[in-house]
Design brief:
Blueprint (H helix, E strand, L loop, with lengths): L5 E5 L3 H9 L2 H21 L4 E8 L7 H24 L2 E6 L6 H14 L5 E9 L1 H14 L6 H5 L12 E4 L18 E4 L9 H13 L8
Parallel strand pairs: 1-2, 1-5, 2-4, 3-4, 5-6
Helix pairs in contact: 1-2, 2-3, 3-4
Length: about 220
């Protein structure tokens, strides 16, 4: 059976779920946060060490201001109300992406990362204002600036995912089959699961099914 260290998720479908069931995209984001909590629990149960969640992309700034503000308000409240609990559960929070939000949110993010930095049970990488193309460009720039040899190992060390193993599984919910500028380098050999359900409807049973399926796949990494 395949070892499983790292699951990455593109949590797509909040807006459609919200419009369909509550007549509001933001209600979909609120429900999406409940799914996040369920999936964190299930990740710990499955003894998986890394969970990367795509919460806000560099392209998501194109959304209406009202929706963006609501998303950040949800995140702020989540951190204020839950960071102690995450810390007690031995969970480490790391942000990948550029922290250029409001002063209040930036401070909360830095505080949460510092507080949980030595935790060992599970590392949650929250991709916020993250875009893989920009990440790759800045890795190239810094490797050239440092005059280091350009090879896979050095290059990986200049990414924001430094010291994080590449994802074994990528899940994208919401019945859309694309990568949306997410971890383009890191997903080179990842097993990808496109899931029809919208993120707020996705649950631990669906998650466990994917994990079970993954464990049985023959992974060759280019060999036979
Ligand atoms: C994509 O659905 C989802 C997002 C851009 C935001 C993800 C946010 C959450 C799951 C909740 C908040 C999470 C945290 C950690 C605070 P979409 O809006 O693009 O859906 P659509 O394709 O139906 O429009």
């Amino acid at each position: 059976m395949n070892p499983l260290k790292h699951v990455a998720i593109i949590m797509d479908g909040n807006g459609r779920w919200g419009l369909k069931f509550k007549n509001s995209r933001n209600a979909g984001h609120k429900a999406g946060l409940k799914t996040v909590e369920k999936i964190i629990k299930a990740t710990i149960k499955n003894n998986i060490k890394f969970l990367t969640l795509y919460a806000f992309s560099t392209e998501n700034w194109k959304r209406p201001k009202k929706e963006i503000n609501y998303l950040f308000h949800l995140l702020e409240n989540f951190l204020i109300n839950r960071i102690e609990e995450l810390h007690k559960k031995n969970i480490k929070l790391k942000i990948i992406g550029n922290k250029n939000f409001s002063k209040k949110l930036n401070k909360l993010l830095i505080y949460s990362e510092r507080k949980t930095k030595n935790n060992k049970k599970l590392q949650i990488n929250l991709a916020l204002n993250y875009g893989s193309k920009l990440e790759l460009i800045s890795a190239f720039k810094s490797i050239i600036k440092n005059k280091e040899a350009i090879n896979i190992k050095n290059f990986s060390n200049h990414l924001q995912t430094k010291n994080i193993p590449d994802p074994d599984i990528l899940i994208r919910t919401g019945d859309t089959n694309r990568l949306s500028n997410f971890l383009l380098w890191q997903l080179a050999y990842t097993e990808i699961f496109f899931e029809k359900k919208l993120w707020p409807s996705f649950n631990d049973k669906d998650y466990n099914k994917i994990i079970k399926k993954y464990k049985r796949i023959k992974r060759n990494f280019g060999g036979i």
